[in-house]
Amino acid sequence: MIQALVATLMWALVASLLIFRRKRADRSITYASFTIAVAMTLNVDAIYLATDPLLGGTNVTTLVSDGLLMTGIFFLGRGVMKADEYRPRLVRVAVGIPVLLTSLLAITTTFVFIDRGTTTTRFMIDLGAQPAAAAYSIINFSYFFLVITTMMILAARQYLRSSGIQRLPAALLSLGSAFGGALCLAVLIMDVAHVTGHLDLMRAVQPAYEPLSLLAFLFLCAGFAAQPAVRRAQHDTRRKRTVGLATQLEPLWKRASLVRPGLSQADPLAASADDPESRLHREIVEIRDAMIDPRVTFDISAAERALLNRAESHLLGLDTRATRTTASPGGRVDQWGSS
Question: What is the pLDDT of residue 319?
Answer without folding.
Answer: 62
